[in-house]
C-alpha cells in the first residue's frame, strides 16, 4: 500500500493546501470564473484554498438543506426545496468542472457529483442515461489529471472505470470518492440490468482477488469501500450504505428472476438473502410475498403461509400478499379462506395512496424492476380484484355471492357520479361486454331473472350505437356474405341470456322470441376471419369461432327445449337436429335429439344416433383444449342434463335390447 | 384586464376550471400551478402597479395599469420539469410528460389549493411509444421543439366526471364515431378518452377509465394505448366538427367528425360511415392545407392560421359533388377535396370562435403575433362557391374596446406585450372554446423571443392584409431600402431598416430557421415591352427549403396584390405582364406541392428510391429559385 506521503513527493499538498489553480490557466468561461472574479481578485494568496473551502462549505450546506427538505412535513414544500438543492448541486458542479481537473479538488468534485446523482435519481425515482453521462464526465476528469484521455474513450464506461481504477493506486486520495461513484455506477447498472458490466466493475473494485467468483451477491459482500475520513465533505449517502442497498436489491432481483424462470431452490435462497439484509418494511413485505409464491410453487404451502402472514403483519394490508394468499388457499381447496382473502384484497385496494416523500438517497425500491402483469407482485386495481372475486364465486357455484359482487363491480365501473372511477378488468381478462354478460348469467343463476333482464337491457342500450344501422340495411346484410359486424356476437349472446331469463320467469313466448333473435343474428354473421383468436379477443368485437359455434348450439338447444315444453316436438326436433349438424361432437345436442326422437317414436334414427354417440365416447376427448367465456360456460351448464349418462344407459336397455331379441 | 399573473417560467398551457374558480397553468420546465381566481381579485391592489405597467402604457396606448400578481412557488401543485401538456377533468389532472425515451401519460387526483397540503395522488400511468428520441443528449432537460397536444373526448350523455368539465379542452363526439374510434369498452364504460397528438405525428388515445392503475404497476401500453393515426408531422391541433345537419337525428347533435391538424398543414378528418352491409366503418380523409399555426373549429368549419393568412375550410361542403347514384353516401361523406378560403388576416397565433350566426356568419377572436387581440366577423354565405368569399370587419380592434364590447366577466386569459411577455388576464367568458385561447402564451412567447434582437424579422410575410402602395423612392432613400421597407411594412423590424437605411435583413422564420432578404437594383430587359427598365431584385435565402418557399411565396403574393390594386386605382395600369407574375405564383404553388410530396416520399423510401427523390427535390428547389422576382 502506498501512503499519502508518496503523493506529497509529487508536489501535491494536503487537501486544503496549495494554490493548485495557478498551475493551470482558467478556462475562463462558465459560472466558475464568474464566481471566482466575484469573490476575490485573482492571484491573491490563499484564494484557492478559500475557494475550495467555499465550495466545500456549499456542498455541506446543500446536504444539510436536503435533510431539511427530507424532513419537511409539507410534501410540496419539501419537493420544492429538494429541487432547489438539486439545482444547487448542479450549479456547484458547473463551478467545479469549469476549471481544469486537479487532483486536490477531485475528491470534492467527485463527492458533489455523487450527491448530485443521488439527488437526481431519488427525485426522479430512477436512473436515466443522464446519470451515466455524469459518471462518464467525472471519470474523464480523473483521467484528465493523468493525461490519459483519448483512445480509452472508445471502450465506454467500462473501459473508463478500468483506466480510472488502474490509476487509483497512485490517487489514493480519490479512493473513497471513487468507490462512492462506483457504488452509484453499480446501482445504475443494476437498475438497467447490465449485470455483466456490474460484475466486472465489482471484480476490479475488489482487486480481482476473487477472480473465480462471478456471483454478484458474493462480490457485493466482499466489496469493502474505504471508510470516509471524518473531515471529508458531507454526503447524502455513503458508499457503505449504498453497498448494503445494492446487496438487498441484487438479491431480490436475482430471486425474482429465478422464480420467473423456474429455478425455485435458487430463488428461495436469493430471496432469503434479501430478507436477511438491510430491508425497509415495504420491501420486506414484497420479499415475503415472493417467498410465499416460491414456496407455494415448491409444494410447501404451510411455509408459504407463514411468510404471507408475516407479510401481512403490521401496517396497512397490502394487495400482493392477499392475492398470493388467495392463490394458495385455492390450491389448498380452502374456498372460504380463498374468497375471504379476495374480499380483503378488494378492501385493501380501495385506498388511494398519496405519494410519500421519497427519501433523498438511493433506496432499495429504486433499484427494483417495475412489476409487470406477469409478476407475482402484480395485484391490479380494486375493480380487477372485485372481478376476480365475482368470477370465482360464479365458477365455484356461489351464485348469490357472485350476483352481488357483479352488481357491485358494475356499479364501480359505470357510476362516475362521484369523482372516483375504476378501470375495467385489464387484458388479458374479459372485456366489458363479457363482464355484463357474466353479471347477467350470475343473476340468472341466483334466480334473479328480472335483474338479469335489466343488466341485459343496459348492455344493449350502451351497445346500440355500435350496431349496424337499422333496419333496412340489415336486409342487405342478410343477403350478402359480409363479415360479422361489430359487436354482433355480444348482442346475440345478450339475447340468449334474455331468453334464459324469460324461461326462468315462465314466459315461454318471450323466451322463444329472444332465442330466435339470437339465432337470426348468429346465422347472418359468418365467422370474421379464418384465423382463430383467443376466447376473449374483444378488440374485434367478436368471439372466437369455437365460442360462436357453442353460442349457436346453446341457442338452438334452448329454443328446442322450449318447443319441447310446449309440446311442439317437430319444431324441437328441427332445432336439435340443426344443433347436432352444427357441432356433431356435442353430446348435449345429441342427447336432446335422442330424447326427442325417442319420444316421437322414431326408433331407427334414435338407435343410429345412439351408436354414433357410443363411437364418439370411445374416441379420446379433445374438447378441453379451448376455453370458453365464463358466461357461456355457465350457460352451457344450464342446458346440460345432470343425469345425462344414466339416461343414456337407460336408452341402451329400452331401445337396443328389444332390437337384439 | 383584471389581473396579471407573473409565473416563474414561460407559460405553455393553461386551463380554467370555472367550477372551482381556479386556473391551472403549465410553466415550462417547472410544473403545473394552480391559481385561485378569487384570491387574485382579492389581492389586487394599486400597490401592485409597478414599472412593468409603465411599459404597458407605453406599448398599449394608455391601457389601464393592471395589477401584477407574482405567483407563489407554493401554488405549484405538480412540480415536474418534464411536463409538456395537461388537461383537467374536474379533480383529475391528466398530464403528458417527456420521459427519457418515451412520452408518459399520468393521471393525478388533485386537491383545491389550500384545501390540502398533500400533493396530487397519482392514480394511473402509461407510456406512449414514440419513434424519435426525445431528451437532449446532455444532462439538462431540454424543452421539446414542438409541444404535444392533449385533449379529452367524451361520449354523449357522459355524466359525472366527463360531464363536469366546462372550460377544459374537451369535446363530445357522437356515439357512433366515439365507438368506432375508441372501441366497445370505452363505449360501454362511457369513459372519457384522452387524445394525444405528439410532435412526431402520432395521434393516439387512452381510455381514461382503463388508465387507472395500481400504485405499483404502470399500465401496459399494448393494452391501453391505441394509435389512431400517424400524421407524420407535429400535431398542432385536435378538434371536432359537426358536418351533417342535425335534421334527422335530433337527440344526437354532437360533433360527428374528428379533425387533427399538423404543423405543416396536413389535416386528418375522421367520420363514422356505414358500408353497404350497414356496418359502421371509420372514414378517414387526409388532405393538405397551408402550413398551420393556430386552429379552431366551429360548426362544420375549421379556421386556421398560417404565417401569412387565416383560412377557413368547410368540411361539410368543401366542394364535394353530390352523387346522384348514391345519395345516402354523398351526404354522409367527407368532401373529396378540402379547399381553404382565405380570409386575409395574417400572423394569427391563436384563434377562437366567439359566436356563430345561423346564416353562415362567424365571429372569431384572434390574437396576433404582435399581441393584438381582434375580432373578425366572417360572412361565409352558404351559397358561396368554394372558396368562399370572406370580408373582414372590425379587425384590429383594441383590447379595451373588445372588453367593453363583451362586458366584464370572470377573469380568463389572453396574452401579450414585446418588450416583455406577461400573461394578461382578460374576460373571455363568452368564448365557446376557451381552450383555444390558452394557446397564445406559448406561441407569443416564441415569437417574442425572436423579435427581441435588433434587425431581426419575426415573420417575414407580414401581410397581405393592409398593404397600401407607397412611393418607392422617397428622396435620399435607395430603391433597395425603400423596397425592403415596403416588404417589411407592419413588421417590427421596419424601424431599424428605416433608421439604418438597410437593403438587406437577416431574420428568423417562425420555425427557427434563418432567413436572408436582400434587395438590390438591377436593369431588366425582357419584362417590359418599352425596353430596358430599372427594377429591384429581391433575393430570399434560407437554409430551410420550407422557409424559403414560404417567404418566396409571400413576396410574390404581395407583389401580385400590389399590381392588382394599382391597376384598380390608376387609370393607366403599369405596363407589366401581370399574367407573367400570376404565372410565377401558380408555378410556385405547383412546385410547393411537389416539394411536400417529395419530402413525404423521402421519409418512406428505401435508399435507392430516396436518392432519386432527393435529386428531384434539388431540381425543384432550383426551379423554385430560378425566376428572379421583379418589382418596379
From TrEMBL, chain A:
GO terms for cellular component: chromatin; Fanconi anaemia nuclear complex; mitochondrion; nuclear speck. It is found in: Nucleus. Keywords: DNA damage, DNA repair, Nucleus, Repeat, TPR repeat. GO terms for biological process: interstrand cross-link repair; mitochondrion organization; ovarian follicle development; response to radiation; spermatid development. DNA repair protein that may operate in a postreplication repair or a cell cycle checkpoint function. May be implicated in interstrand DNA cross-link repair and in the maintenance of normal chromosome stability. Candidate tumor suppressor gene. This is FA complementation group G. It comes from Panthera leo (Lion).
TrEMBL record, chain B:
Transmembrane segments: none annotated. Residues 43-66 are annotated as: Disordered. One of its GO terms (cellular component) is Fanconi anaemia nuclear complex. One of its GO terms (biological process) is interstrand cross-link repair. Pfam families: FANCAA. Residues 47-63 have a biased composition (Acidic residues). It comes from the Eukaryota. This is Fanconi anemia core complex-associated protein 100. It comes from Panthera tigris altaica (Siberian tiger).
Amino acid at each position: 500500500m502506498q501512503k499519502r506521503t508518496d503523493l506529497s513527493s509529487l508536489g501535491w499538498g494536503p487537501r486544503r493546501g496549495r494554490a493548485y489553480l495557478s498551475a493551470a490557466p482558467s478556462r475562463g468561461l462558465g459560472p466558475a470564473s464568474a464566481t471566482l472574479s466575484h469573490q476575490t481578485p485573482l492571484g491573491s494568496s490563499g484564494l484557492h484554498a478559500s475557494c475550495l473551502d467555499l465550495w466545500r462549505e456549499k456542498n455541506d450546506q446543500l446536504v444539510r438543506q436536503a435533510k431539511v427538505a427530507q424532513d419537511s412535513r409539507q410534501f410540496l414544500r419539501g419537493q420544492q426545496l429538494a429541487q432547489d438543492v438539486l439545482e444547487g448541486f448542479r450549479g456547484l458542479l458547473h463551478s467545479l468542472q469549469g476549471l481544469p481537473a486537479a487532483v486536490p479538488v477531485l475528491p470534492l468534485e467527485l463527492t458533489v457529483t455523487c450527491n448530485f446523482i443521488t439527488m437526481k435519481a431519488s427525485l426522479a425515482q430512477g436512473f436515466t442515461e443522464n446519470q451515466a453521462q455524469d459518471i462518464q464526465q467525472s471519470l474523464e476528469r480523473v483521467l484528465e489529471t493523468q493525461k490519459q484521455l483519448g483512445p480509452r474513450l472508445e471502450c465506454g464506461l467500462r473501459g473508463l472505470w478500468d483506466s480510472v481504477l488502474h490509476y487509483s493506486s497512485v490517487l489514493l486520495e480519490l479512493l473513497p470518492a471513487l468507490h462512492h461513484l462506483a457504488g452509484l455506477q453499480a446501482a445504475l447498472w443494476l437498475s438497467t440490468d447490465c449485470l455483466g458490466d456490474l460484475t466486472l466493475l465489482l471484480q476490479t473494485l475488489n482487486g480481482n482477488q476473487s477472480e473465480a467468483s462471478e456471483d454478484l451477491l458474493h462480490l457485493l459482500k466482499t466489496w469493502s469501500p474505504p471508510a470516509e475520513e471524518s473531515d471529508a465533505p458531507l454526503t447524502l449517502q455513503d458508499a457503505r450504505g449504498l453497498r448494503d442497498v445494492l446487496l438487498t436489491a441484487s438479491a431480490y432481483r436475482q430471486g425474482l428472476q429465478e422464480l420467473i424462470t423456474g429455478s425455485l431452490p435458487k430463488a428461495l435462497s436469493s430471496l432469503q438473502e434479501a430478507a436477511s439484509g438491510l430491508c425497509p418494511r415495504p420491501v420486506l413485505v414484497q420479499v415475503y410475498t415472493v417467498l410465499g409464491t416460491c414456496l407455494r410453487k415448491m409444494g410447501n404451502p404451510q411455509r408459504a403461509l407463514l411468510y404471507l402472514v408475516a407479510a401481512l403483519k403490521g401496517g396497512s394490508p397490502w394487495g400482493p400478499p392477499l392475492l398470493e394468499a388467495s392463490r394458495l388457499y385455492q390450491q389448498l381447496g380452502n374456498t372460504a379462506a380463498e374468497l375471504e382473502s379476495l374480499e380483503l384484497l378488494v378492501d385493501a385496494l380501495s385506498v388511494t395512496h398519496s405519494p410519500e416523500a421519497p427519501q433523498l438517497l438511493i433506496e432499495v425500491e429504486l433499484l427494483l424492476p417495475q412489476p409487470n402483469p406477469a409478476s407475482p407482485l402484480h395485484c391490479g386495481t380494486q375493480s380487477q380484484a372485485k372481478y376476480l372475486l365475482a368470477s370465482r364465486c360464479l365458477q365455484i357455484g356461489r351464485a348469490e355471492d357472485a350476483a352481488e359482487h357483479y352488481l357491485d363491480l358494475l356499479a364501480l365501473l359505470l357510476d362516475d357520479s362521484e369523482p372516483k372511477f375504476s378501470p375495467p378488468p385489464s387484458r388479458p381478462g374479459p372485456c366489458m361486454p363479457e363482464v355484463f354478460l357474466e353479471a347477467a348469467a350470475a343473476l340468472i343463476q341466483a334466480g334473479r331473472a328480472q335483474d338479469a333482464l335489466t343488466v341485459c337491457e343496459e348492455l344493449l342500450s350502451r351497445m346500440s350505437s355500435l350496431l349496424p344501422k337499422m333496419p333496412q340495411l340489415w336486409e342487405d346484410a342478410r343477403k350478402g356474405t359480409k363479415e360479422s359486424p361489430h359487436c354482433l356476437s355480444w348482442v346475440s349472446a345478450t339475447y340468449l341470456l334474455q331468453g334464459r331469463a324469460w324461461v326462468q320467469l315462465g314466459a315461454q313466448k318471450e323466451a322463444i322470441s329472444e332465442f330466435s333473435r339470437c339465432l337470426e343474428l348468429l346465422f347472418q354473421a359468418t365467422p370474421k376471419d379464418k384465423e382463430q383468436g383467443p376466447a376473449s379477443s374483444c378488440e374485434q368485437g367478436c368471439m372466437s369461432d369455437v365460442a360462436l359455434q357453442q353460442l349457436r348450439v346453446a341457442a338452438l338447444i334452448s329454443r328446442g327445449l322450449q318447443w319441447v315444453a310446449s309440446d311442439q316436438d317437430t319444431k324441437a326436433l328441427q332445432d336439435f337436429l340443426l344443433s347436432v349438424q352444427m357441432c356433431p361432437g356435442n353430446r348435449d345436442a345429441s342427447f336432446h335429439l335422442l330424447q326427442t326422437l325417442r319420444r316421437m317414436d322414431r326408433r331407427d334414427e334414435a338407435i343410429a344416433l345412439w351408436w354414433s354417440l357410443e363411437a364418439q365416447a370411445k374416441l379420446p376427448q379433445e374438447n378441453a383444449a379451448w376455453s370458453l367465456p365464463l358466461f357461456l360456460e355457465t350457460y352451457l351448464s344450464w342446458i346440460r342434463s345432470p343425469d345425462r349418462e344414466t339416461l343414456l344407459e337407460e336408452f341402451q336397455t329400452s331401445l337396443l335390447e328389444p332390437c337384439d331379441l | 384586464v383584471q389581473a396579471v399573473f407573473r409565473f416563474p417560467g414561460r407559460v405553455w398551457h393553461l386551463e380554467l376550471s370555472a367550477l372551482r374558480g381556479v386556473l391551472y397553468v403549465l410553466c415550462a420546465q417547472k410544473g403545473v400551478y394552480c391559481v385561485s381566481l378569487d384570491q387574485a381579485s382579492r389581492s389586487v391592489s394599486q400597490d401592485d402597479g409597478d414599472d412593468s405597467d409603465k411599459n404597458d402604457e407605453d406599448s398599449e396606448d394608455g391601457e389601464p395599469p393592471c395589477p401584477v400578481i407574482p405567483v407563489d412557488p407554493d401554488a405549484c401543485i405538480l412540480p415536474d420539469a418534464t411536463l409538456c401538456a395537461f388537461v383537467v377533468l374536474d379533480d383529475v389532472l391528466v398530464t403528458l410528460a417527456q420521459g427519457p425515451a418515451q412520452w408518459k401519460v399520468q393521471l393525478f387526483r388533485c386537491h383545491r389549493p389550500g384545501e390540502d397540503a398533500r400533493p396530487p395522488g397519482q392514480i394511473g400511468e402509461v407510456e406512449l411509444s414514440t419513434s424519435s428520441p426525445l431528451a437532449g443528449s446532455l444532462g439538462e432537460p431540454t424543452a421539446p421543439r414542438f409541444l404535444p397536444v392533449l385533449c379529452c373526448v367524451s361520449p354523449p350523455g357522459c355524466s359525472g366526471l366527463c360531464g363536469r368539465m366546462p372550460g377544459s379542452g374537451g369535446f363530445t363526439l357522437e356515439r357512433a364515431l366515439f365507438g368506432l374510434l375508441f372501441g366497445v369498452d370505452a363505449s360501454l364504460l362511457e369513459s372519457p378518452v384522452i387524445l394525444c397528438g405528439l410532435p412526431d405525428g402520432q395521434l393516439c388515445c387512452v381510455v381514461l377509465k382503463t388508465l387507472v392503475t395500481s400504485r405499483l404497476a404502470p399500465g401496459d401500453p399494448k393494452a391501453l394505448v391505441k394509435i389512431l393515426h400517424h400524421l407524420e408531422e407535429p400535431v398542432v391541433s385536435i378538434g371536432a366538427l359537426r358536418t351533417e345537419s342535425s335534421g334527422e337525428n335530433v337527440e344526437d347533435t354532437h360533433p360527428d367528425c374528428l379533425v387533427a391538424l399538423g404543423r405543416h398543414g396536413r389535416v386528418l378528418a375522421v367520420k363514422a360511415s356505414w358500408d353497404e352491409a350497414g356496418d359502421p366503418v371509420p372514414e378517414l380523409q387526409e388532405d393538405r392545407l397551408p402550413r398551420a399555426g393556430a386552429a379552431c373549429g366551429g360548426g362544420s368549419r375549421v379556421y386556421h392560421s398560417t404565417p401569412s393568412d387565416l383560412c377557413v375550410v368547410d368540411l361539410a361542403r368543401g366542394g364535394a359533388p353530390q352523387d346522384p347514384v348514391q345519395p345516402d353516401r354523398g351526404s354522409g361523406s367527407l368532401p373529396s377535396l378540402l379547399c381553404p378560403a382565405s380570409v386575409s388576416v395574417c400572423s394569427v397565433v391563436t384563434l377562437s370562435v366567439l359566436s356563430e350566426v345561423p346564416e353562415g356568419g362567424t365571429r372569431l377572436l384572434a390574437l396576433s403575433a404582435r399581441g393584438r387581440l381582434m375580432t373578425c366577423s366572417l360572412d361565409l354565405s352558404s351559397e358561396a362557391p368554394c372558396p368562399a368569399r370572406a370580408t373582414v370587419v372590425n379587425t384590429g380592434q383594441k383590447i379595451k374596446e373588445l372588453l367593453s364590447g363583451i362586458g366584464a366577466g370572470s377573469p380568463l386569459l389572453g396574452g401579450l406585450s414585446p418588450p416583455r411577455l406577461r400573461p394578461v388576464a382578460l374576460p373571455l367568458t363568452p368564448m365557446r372554446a376557451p381552450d383555444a385561447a390558452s394557446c397564445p402564451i406559448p406561441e407569443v412567447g416564441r415569437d417574442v423571443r425572436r423579435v427581441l434582437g435588433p434587425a431581426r424579422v419575426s415573420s417575414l410575410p407580414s401581410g397581405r392584409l393592409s398593404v397600401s402602395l407607397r412611393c418607392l423612392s422617397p428622396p435620399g432613400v435607395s430603391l433597395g431600402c425603400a423596397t425592403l421597407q415596403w416588404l417589411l411594412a407592419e413588421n417590427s423590424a421596419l424601424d431599424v431598416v428605416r433608421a439604418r437605411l438597410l437593403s438587406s435583413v437577416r431574420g428568423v422564420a417562425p420555425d427557427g430557421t434563418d432567413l436572408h432578404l436582400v434587395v438590390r437594383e438591377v436593369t431588366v430587359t425582357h419584362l417590359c415591352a418599352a425596353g430596358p427598365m430599372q427594377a429591384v431584385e429581391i433575393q430570399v435565402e434560407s437554409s430551410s427549403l420550407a422557409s424559403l418557399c414560404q417567404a418566396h411565396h409571400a413576396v410574390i403574393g404581395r407583389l401580385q396584390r400590389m399590381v392588382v390594386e394599382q391597376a384598380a386605382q390608376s387609370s393607366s395600369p403599369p405596363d407589366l405582364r401581370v399574367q407573367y407574375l400570376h404565372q410565377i405564383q401558380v408555378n410556385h404553388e405547383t412546385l410547393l406541392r411537389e416539394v411536400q410530396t417529395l419530402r413525404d416520399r423521402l421519409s418512406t423510401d428505401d435508399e435507392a428510391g430516396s436518392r432519386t427523390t432527393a435529386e428531384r427535390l434539388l431540381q425543384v428547389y432550383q426551379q423554385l429559385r430560378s425566376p428572379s422576382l421583379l418589382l418596379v
